[in-house]
Each structure stands twice: as structure tokens, then as C-alpha cells.
Amino acid sequence: MDLSIIEADLKAVEISFQEYLSSRVPLIAKIGKHILTSGGKRIRPAILLLSSRLNGYAGERAIRMASIIEFIHTATLLHDDVVDNADIRRGNPAANTLWGSEASVLVGDFLFSKSFHLMVDDGDLKILGILAEATTELAEGEILELVKTGDFSITTQEYMDLITSKTAVLISAASRIGAVLGKATDEIEEAMKEYGLHIGIAFQLVDDCLDYTATNESLGKTIGTDLREGKVTLPLILSLERATNDERKRVQDIVLSDEIAQRDFDEVQEIIQKYDGIEATLGLAKDHVEKAKSHLKMLPMKAEREALEGLADYIVQRDR
Ligand code: FPP
Ligand code: MG
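Above: inputs. Below: predicted complex with farnesyl diphosphate.
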């Protein structure tokens, strides 16, 4: 992934985080800094910046919007790690490990509220509407995931809807906002929205594969968290469709047990391997990457478009 053409803008985004974190309560900046300087990939800000530049917008508002979108994403991660009982994020102890769940949830609330405050300052009702809609759907997706915990009857379609809501809509909003800043036509705005949506779906599909295939070190998270939390993700859904009744029953017992030992995790991994659950999921992720890129076809062949295409390819090549 080559983001050199927006390097200066991405630096400006980092600087604005400091400003937006300032508060009379020092714990906010402490936790905010901990998670914001922990080596996030900055995919959402990069997409927003590239999309705005590709659509001819060269002003400062893109920096502000890119910071806002990362703030929203960071707020959701603080909440998500509490919900998922995750202890590590980006190779560091998760905020909830260091400061507890209460502080994590509340600082997440601060980042989320601050984001909307900054949007109101910017004053663009259309962008405010896009982000209000996206964050509502995102919360809905996360709640749907909670409801589906340990549910083996989840279908591929339901799972795809779920990841579209919890992950893809925010990435889609980032991409679309770039077009809005550039005052693009409705048709182009729609294309940018679709680009982000397919990138987001591919991103989450790969995330779900990495939860089975990566190492804790490369991923910077504890692998196997999905299974331990009872999340039935696509690699498992597709494998269970092909598995024998005995295998299905065995996986169900493991997921519903109180403690999942390493050998239980290994057993599930073997079943996924036997039925090519990872390959099938990655194949689908690649289809979405191609779809994402195809939506860029009507945009001018500029360096920003190439970078967005490269970013799409990176999504399925990454190991963290
Ligand atoms: C990560 O999924 C989680 C999300 C993409 C969405 C989280 C959303 C919320 C917690 C609710 C809304 C919160 C606000 C502030 C509006 P994952 O657990 O699969 O990814 P991971 O492996 O990186 O943890
Ligand atoms: Mg999580």
C-alpha cells in the first residue's frame, strides 16, 4: 500500500488528534493517546483523503473529516474490546486491560460525542447526515452480532448483512464523504460509496480469517477471540455447511463450553482447514476487492485512484 501522496495530510491528521483530545480531564488524553498512537492502519482517514483529492477537493476540511472518522472508529474499538473481552489490541494491552471497562466505555463516549461536535463546527448537514446514519447502522450491526452469538443457524446472507453494518458502512461513509467534499455528481458519489462498502466487506472477511490463521505477534491481537466469544464467522459458517453431523455437533459443543482449551481451538481449526473455510472466505474477499476497484473505473486515472486501487489490493494481502 503506497500512501506517500497523502503523507503530509496523514501527518496533519495525527496532529489534529492531539488538539481534539484536549480536555480538563487528563484521563481522556491518556487513554485516547494510548489507543490512537498504537499503530492503527489509518485505512478510513486514508480513504477519505484519497477520495476527496481524487474528486478535486484540496482544502483543509478533508483533514478534519479524516480525523473525525478515525475518532469514531477509535470510539467503537474502545467499546468493542469491552464487549469482546479482548485483552490485546494492536500489540499493546487493550485500554480495558490497563484502565478497566468503565474508563474505556466512557472515553469511547467522549470520542464519539466529540466527533459529532466537530462535525457541527464544520457545518455540513449532508456529511452530518451520512455519519449519523452510518454510526446508527454500525451500532445496530454490533448489537445484531451480540444477538447472534453462539447461533449456529446464522446464514451466509445474515453474516454478510452483519459485517456490512458493523464494518463496511463506516468505510463506505469515509469514501463517500471524499466525493461530497469534492462536490462530485450523484453518480460518482454513489460509486465512491460502493467502493468503500466493498472494501469494508473484504476487510472484515480478512479480519475473520486472520482470527484463525495469524499469529498473536503479527496480528497484535489474540487469535481465536471470535471462537472464544461464540462468534460464528464466515470461515466457520462455510466449513460447517460442508461438515458431517458429528463434526458440527463437536464444534457446537466447543463453542458453547465455558472454557475453550488450545486443543479445542486446534480441532476447530482442523475442521476449517479440511473444508477450505479460509480459502473460500478469502476468495469472496477477493471478489469484493475487484468489485470495489470496478467502481473506480468512472474516475479519472490519477495517482489517487491508483492509491485507492492499491489500498484495495492491500486489504486481502495484509497479515494484520
Ligand atoms: C470490530 O469488530 C468492531 C466494529 C467494527 C464495530 C464496533 C461497534 C460498536 C462497539 C458499537 C458502536 C459504538 C459507537 C461508539 C457508535 P471485531 O470485533 O470483529 O474486530 P476486532 O477483531 O478488531 O476486535
Ligand atoms: Mg473485537
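DSSP finds 16 helices and two strands in the chain.
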